[in-house]
């Protein structure tokens, strides 16, 4: 039987406790949706104001040089690099995950397909945009050149053979929170001559990632979840150093040119990670990401992972302590190490439960058709948050408050 | 002989005079670079603060619904529509010009090429990113499917024949400021069965544009120049209603799906303009654009064009009045109606002239190898600005201050 006192002690002993003070969190709210949209780091407010009012407003065009807007994509990329186990110079911040996946998949298809090897393989439960981008590329190039196949997540490893050109996976499943073994998938891919592209949307910033050590070929990721870069913030691209300069991505915008400011009519790709830029960077949004990443400068991601697993396990135990485990059907793996930083449950009234929790100041996430996700952000979620959240869930379920007819359907955004 | 008093009278009589008060302009600066980066509309400051601190900070994930972030791309598109002569529902705000051109060119190639008709034709003096994107697409699809050809700007109209699938043009040339006759190019393209894609980067917001009346097929444009949306702000896409639903763009991200929040593993494109979305919209940057566009709500673009031409003509006359016309070689057309809203001059020391002008508080734009651009933004530039700018140019050239050895080479950004 876990008691609130013990939980308060956990918070006092938490080595990450002071990070919470660096966020602007709404009062009387327990926010368990950082896996969808990370909270606002206080320092981002000042940076956004400065970049808008001083840099744009006062210094205008000269800011491209004086405030070095022109290299923001690299600067931000270099701050992301240690978070994902990459070297500086191998990561760049730009565009959205969708656009970046299109660049990487196109480059990989051109580099690694042949008549015998033309498959892109992914799991059918991958995040939809990843699947859609592969489908869109197949539509453009034709299925002889680029044949997209999706298989059950559990079959993915065994289905990698010599017909596969590209393995496209997301480290942590957005729905179940299940974490895949990227090192093992990479080894298998390479044994069969395939490239691997990893989507880190639900893992970057909340656990150690070792792209270099795992020898991952390419990756994309999101800055607006556990990296707290702001709604729809620019995404990132990683390309293994061994592949840089050997790939050609087709969205050949001027920022990917070797010398964009020569205004030559002929495209010559930059030989480094800069090739993966396309258009002019979105300065205000990217400056927000840059400021948010300062929180990660001296952060030990292993301690983040440890707390993330503790938060999840506590949640799980409290669900059981309230006897809710028969009502909420857990989709996430039983073994904590196999999870990302979320717990997902199927529940017939998941949408209504989510709304009733909002009424009680607990923010979780509904996903069609019938499940609810609770995300744990170790930088600002406390153990006490978990205690009160599960109390609220128990209150709603015990009272059947979720059956109130007043909820109107809403859209949900990852 | 034009005198300062007459110019002050012009400002007093200017029907757009009050717009200048709606911008936060730096003191003691004459900003003639709004064709590169528009100035900061004061209202954008409040909007950026609100979207960051209240919407993101306080309302967090619920803002996708309560603040309708989810339809920002359409809302902003609908505000751009009247500025470019389009109907609501035919324009959407997203990504960069480079990424958007890739979407449109790919869709157009799939729709309109055949063995006999496989050319994309553009002018070799088009803005480089437009050329690069066509080159990148040819690299991906092969030159049998997609054969990119660039010709001299003057030859463009005559080179459109039945082998051309797509005409790719920018209405106003970024270098010379020359304005092309889009209506005539569109007629010629259609006579030969070609589609036309128009880049409005240097025209949107500074002159009337009539995409619907001209029957243009597709267009892209920039919000950070004359629309004042902020550095690297999201661009826009226009697709003629007659083509919507008949095209398939390949960057098939989840926001272009008919029902993105069903999280289906199969991509089904939206049948309207929403298909041209890819990833999650960049909310902070797009909210800035949204606020900036409020200035255009009741604006008569013909009066903007009239003032733009007056500012340019005054600049031209004052250059002549100072006897500078032999030193600065004008690249822009002589006839004002054939110009956009800029004047460009070749000058051996263009870079140094630009720097010496900055020292005197006049901001213009250097472009490699040897020319200087002066952009006229009728919403915040006054006639008196022009007077003082040309005074400063005359001062620098007469004193040969541009020969001072202290200038260090800088990069220039459009």
TrEMBL record, chains A, B:
In terms of superkingdom, the source organism counts as: Bacteria
Hydrolase as UniProt keyword: yes
Q: Which GO terms describe its cellular component?
A: cytoplasm
Alphabetically list the UniProt keywords.
Hydrolase, Pyridine nucleotide biosynthesis, Pyridoxal phosphate
BP terms from Gene Ontology: anthranilate metabolic process; L-kynurenine catabolic process; L-tryptophan catabolic process to kynurenine; NAD+ biosynthetic process; quinolinate biosynthetic process
Known EC number: 3.7.1.3
> Which reaction is this enzyme known to catalyze?
3-hydroxy-L-kynurenine + H2O = 3-hydroxyanthranilate + L-alanine + H(+); L-kynurenine + H2O = anthranilate + L-alanine + H(+)
Q: Does the keyword Zinc-finger apply?
A: no
**At which residues is N6-(pyridoxal phosphate)lysine found?**
225
Q: What does this protein do?
A: Catalyzes the cleavage of L-kynurenine (L-Kyn) and L-3-hydroxykynurenine (L-3OHKyn) into anthranilic acid (AA) and 3-hydroxyanthranilic acid (3-OHAA), respectively.
Family designation? Belongs to the kynureninase family.
Mind telling me what this protein is named?
Answer: Kynureninase
Q: Which organism was this protein described from?
A: Idiomarina aquatica
Gene that encodes the chain: kynU
């Amino acid at each position: 039987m876990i008691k609130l006192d013990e939980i308060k002690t956990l918070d006092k002993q938490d080595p990450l406790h002071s990070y919470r003070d660096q966020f602007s969190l709404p009062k009387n709210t327990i926010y368990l949706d950082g896996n969808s949209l990370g909270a606002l780091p206080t320092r981002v407010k000042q940076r956004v104001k400065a970049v808008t009012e001083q840099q744009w407003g006062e210094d205008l065009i000269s800011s491209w040089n004086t405030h070095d807007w022109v290299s923001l994509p690299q600067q931000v990329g270099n701050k992301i690099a240690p978070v994902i186990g990459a070297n500086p110079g191998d990561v760049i911040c730009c565009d959205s995950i969708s656009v970046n996946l299109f660049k990487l998949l196109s480059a990989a298809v051109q580099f690694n397909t042949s008549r015998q090897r033309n498959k892109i393989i992914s799991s059918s439960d991958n995040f939809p945009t990843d699947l859609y981008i592969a489908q869109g590329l197949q539509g453009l190039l034709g299925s002889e050149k680029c044949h997209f196949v999706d298989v059950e997540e559990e079959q993915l490893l065994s289905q990698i053979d010599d017909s596969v050109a590209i393995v496209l996976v997301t480290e942590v499943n957005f729905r179940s929170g299940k974490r895949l073994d990227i090192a093992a998938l990479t080894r298998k891919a390479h044994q069969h001559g395939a490239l691997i592209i990893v989507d880190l949307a639900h893992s970057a910033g909340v656990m150690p990632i070792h792209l270099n050590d795992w020898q991952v070929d390419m990756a994309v990721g999101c800055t607006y979840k556990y990296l707290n870069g702001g709604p729809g913030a620019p995404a990132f691209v990683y390309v293994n150093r061994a592949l840089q300069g050997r790939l050609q991505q087709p969205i050949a915008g001027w920022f990917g040119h070797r010398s964009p400011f020569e205004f030559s009519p002929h495209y010559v790709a930059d030989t480094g990670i800069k090739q993966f830029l396309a258009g002019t960077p979105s300065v205000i949004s990217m400056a927000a990401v840059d400021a948010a990443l300062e929180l990660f400068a001296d952060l030990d991601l292993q301690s983040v992972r440890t707390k993330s697993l503790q938060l999840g396990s506590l949640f799980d135990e409290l669900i059981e302590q309230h006897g809710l485990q028969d009502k909420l059907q857990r989709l996430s793996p039983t073994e904590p190490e196999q999870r990302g930083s979320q717990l997902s449950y199927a529940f017939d009234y998941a949408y209504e439960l989510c709304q009733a929790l909002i009424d009680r100041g607990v923010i979780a996430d509904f996903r069609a058709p019938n499940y609810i996700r609770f995300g744990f952000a170790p930088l600002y979620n406390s153990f006490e948050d978990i205690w009160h959240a599960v109390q609220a869930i128990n209150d709603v379920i015990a009272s059947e408050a979720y059956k109130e007819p007043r909820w109107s359907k809403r859209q949900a955004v990852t």
